[in-house]
Amino acid sequence: MTGTSGPIEFWFEFSSPYAYFAALEIEELARRHGRSVAWRPFLLGVVFKLTKMAPLPDQSLRGDYAFRDWERLARLRGVPYTLPPKFPIVSLVPARMFYAAEQMNPEAAPKFALGLFDGLYAKGLDITDAGVAATLGASVGFDAPALVRSASDQRYKDALRARTDEAIGKGVFGSPFFIVDGEPFWGSDRLPMLEIWLSRGGW
Amino acid sequence: MTGTSGPIEFWFEFSSPYAYFAALEIEELARRHGRSVAWRPFLLGVVFKLTKMAPLPDQSLRGDYAFRDWERLARLRGVPYTLPPKFPIVSLVPARMFYAAEQMNPEAAPKFALGLFDGLYAKGLDITDAGVAATLGASVGFDAPALVRSASDQRYKDALRARTDEAIGKGVFGSPFFIVDGEPFWGSDRLPMLEIWLSRGGW
Asked: Which residue among A10, A114, B104, B153 is buried most deeply as judged by most CB within 10 Å?
């Protein structure tokens, strides 16, 4: 791995619809440029405590805009989207489970993340329920009981905490957030700019 | 003016570099779709008091990102940009002066706004100084002494306050912010989406 061929770090919070939209595009984008994607769920709420930002639904004016924006983004891109029945969610369970899945089978873990996003935003499933999340994992080949256990396993509590600390250390303040060759890009809106960056090797 | 041929409302804060980048593109974009642009400076600080958001430079992590982002946006677009010596600025003077200019000569007022942006971000001028701002107005045909007087004229204090209240009433929470046929778009990143909206008449 060299400085110009490292993975695209894809930092995201499962409770972020913008991350869902980005998740649907990032692997294809990376492939176009011969890059891999490092999927990195983290706890945006921990970051917000540090930056004193509020979750979008709690922000006056900006929250209303976001709810409307998610709907029109989905229509524009022709992808399924419904606001989850419980929203925002506390993503501890799916995020810990992701890191367990990554250890069990790194190649299949992104498929699990996509399955979780799809479960939450396309199917309206409660992915904060360990049983529900593990069933989604099973559908892409993971052992469901092992995933359920991982949700309360100290190793994966620690793994998620460490990744969240790593995110903060790298300046990640929102979701989704991409880092490629050290260059940060915030927001699903910035995928076109990220792609120019990859094409030119920066500017 | 019908619902599908009204102006693009361009709400902006002079102290916002993202608004500067958008200002350089918006008239050309509007022309491509047979629209006009209603330039609408407002006081973002007043909105932030309501939404409890902080100015970008005061936000940890996000502030650092923004400073870096402005530099790379300017390089990508090939436009001049330097962080103003005093930043952020309090934009009362240029914003009041803009509304005075708009009353004197509506057609020339956008050129004055562009001159103020250029003065601030390309030439490093202190546009909070009424004399400096009025000189920029004179270079696009306005009467400099009249502009200087307008900066402390109650009519334009009131006009700016009214526009800022209007912005809040319309859900404007950041800068730049565009409204076209009632549809809101936040951020210079959203100009491509706004353009798709104009092309299709919504989606």
From this structure: A10
Nearest-neighbour CA in chain B from A13: distance (Å):
17
Structure tokens belonging to residue B121: 């971000």
A127 vs chain B: nearest CA distance in angstroms? 29
Candidates B54, B72, B203; nearest CB to A75: B203
Q: Does A182 touch chain B (CB under 8 A)?
A: no
Predicted confidence pLDDT, tens digits, chain A (203 residues): 344 589 999 999 999 999 999 999 999 999 999 999 999 999 999 999 988 888 888 888 999 999 999 999 999 999 999 999 999 999 999 999 999 999 999 999 999 999 999 999 999 999 999 999 999 999 999 999 999 999 999 999 999 999 999 999 999 999 999 999 999 999 999 999 999 999 999 99
CB B73 within 8 A of CB B67: no
Q: CB contact, 8 Å: B72 with chain A? A: yes
For A178, left (φ over 0), alpha (ψ -120 to 50), or beta?
beta
Q: Give the chain B residue nearest A54 (alpha carbons).
A: B53
Structure tokens at A170: 């790298």
B127 CA to chain A: closest CA distance, Å? 29
ipTM for the predicted complex = 0.92
Comparing alpha-carbon positions, the chain B residue that sits nearest to A62 is B173
Decide if B51 and A64 are in contact by the 8 Å CB cutoff. Answer: no
Could you give the dihedral angle defined by the CA atoms of residues A105, A108, A109 and A114, in that order, rounded to the nearest 10 degrees? -170
Residue B124 forms contact with A (CB below 8 Å): no
The CA-atom distances, in angstroms, between B200 and each of A7, B138, B172, B193, B203 are: 36, 40, 24, 11, 7
CB contact under 8 A, B62 and A173: yes
For the entire predicted model, the pTM comes to 0.94
